[in-house]
């Protein structure tokens, strides 16, 4: 019987797990490099010595039971945790040669380059058009015609244009849940980020809407680096190129998705993937 309570239960496995991405993904193919990352909620040690490379123009899925740290890890990548008190990160998150944890670059510019879509669709209380144009207006001064083109481009990339092109002045709240989530994705990519973080983007959606989001994720990786947190093992298997399995704040195993699902290196990874451990 496993004793899950010990914080360094996976010391041997996590040491190997931390090294796996370095072996699989070269520096040349790396978009974000995470080195010796620790994260704290007050005194609680939520992430423990995470070392991971996120590959360019690939989809990396983070899986693991609730509370394992996968969403926390995602929020460190654009310092979203700074919105909340008593949270801190230590280590390195290297992006474009800078450590995002210590850089003096305006955090708004970082979040424009590393966008995030949350579990629950969060359209702004404004029109569909203004939802997409919001970030563009913050960072760029475009003529109206170019702004219109960018809004159409973003909605098209998010596979939503044909559904909303005749009602752009309607409220974003008037859309269905799946449409709202695609609107949020359109809003995120409208500022032309390099990385898109998706935190359980389909958890509140019906199967048809989920299928559309998954198709969109597979398409988006041609232009963006995508990291997704999901509790849906089938979704991770369908959408991602690489999968990271986390438990108790540690990276247990990292590998190509096919390898993780077909032949995981560790028993605990297999137990989780097969549903024997939650």
Automatic annotation (TrEMBL):
InterPro entries: AAA+_ATPase (IPR003593), ABC_transporter-like_ATP-bd (IPR003439), ABC_transporter-like_CS (IPR017871), P-loop_NTPase (IPR027417), PstB-like (IPR005670). It is a peripheral membrane protein. The keyword Nucleotide-binding applies. Gene3D superfamilies: P-loop containing nucleotide triphosphate hydrolases (3.40.50.300). The keyword Ion transport does not apply. One of its GO terms (molecular function) is ATP hydrolysis activity. One of its GO terms (biological process) is phosphate ion transmembrane transport. One of its GO terms (cellular component) is plasma membrane. It is found in: Cell inner membrane. Keywords: ATP-binding, Cell inner membrane, Cell membrane, Membrane, Nucleotide-binding, Phosphate transport, Translocase, Transport. Pfam families: ABC_tran. Residues 32-273 form the ABC transporter domain. Part of the ABC transporter complex PstSACB involved in phosphate import. Responsible for energy coupling to the transport system. This is Phosphate import ATP-binding protein pstB. It comes from Actinobacillus pleuropneumoniae serovar 6 str. Femo.
